[in-house]
Amino acid sequence: xxYVEANGARIPSIGLGTWELRGRVCAxxxxxxxxxxxxxxxxxxxxxxxxxVGEGLRxxxxxxxxxxxxxxxxxxxxxxxxxxxxxKESLVRLRMSDVDLLLLHWPNAHVPLAExxxxxxxxxxxxxxxxxxxxxxxxxLIEEAVALCPQPLVCxxxxxxxxxxxxxxxxxxxxxxxxxVAYSPIAKGHIKSDAVLTRIGAAHRKSAAQVCLRWLxxxxxxxxxxxxxxxxLSENIEIFDFTLDDAEMAEIxxxxxxxxxxxxxxFAPKWD
Length: 272
Prior knowledge:
By secondary structure, this protein is an alpha/beta fold.
């Protein structure tokens, strides 16, 4: 496993995303992923599966300290007292004394960012989280957050895959010593039939998805693919035994297009 170092955090470069995984399925997938060698699990309050993520971790018998666990505070809990209360509730559901990383899930223009970040930093100071960061923040919001936050931010978690150019956000993160964490890293499965990725994969005896994840990891990006299929879990982590050359990296990057974004909501910020 490779790691990305960012402002004191050491984040495993492949993690398991758990969005839309629920109940027994979620617990089983988390347990299997950890047994296969995953050491990074990503959840969120709004996924309503923190309890099952904790169950899966305990069932795996992998030591808690060996697993990097991320959860995210939902936007309705951004007022300072709400944020701290909701972070504690997340820990109760996970049955953990802290998480490795606590993120703001989306920007919320209705609560002053300075207040929310002050509370997020306070959660870290209280020992509820070892590290803190943001998700779905634009370049402007990253710069604002870094300037306002009393504690170092370790990442911005955003949608990132070959069809969506995130160079500006990646550069802004690098400038601030932050990692970029990619959700939907295989474009919700759209890349599986991509001719370019399939051809490059064939040359390395790898799948299009493995090529896609390798492309991210070689940019020092952390990827958190979600899967409920055990064989897919194995495939997604078997990307450390080959390397893409510069020409292949460039060819994959050239797949980006204006319609590449797959996750967008009315409350989303004005994207870069």
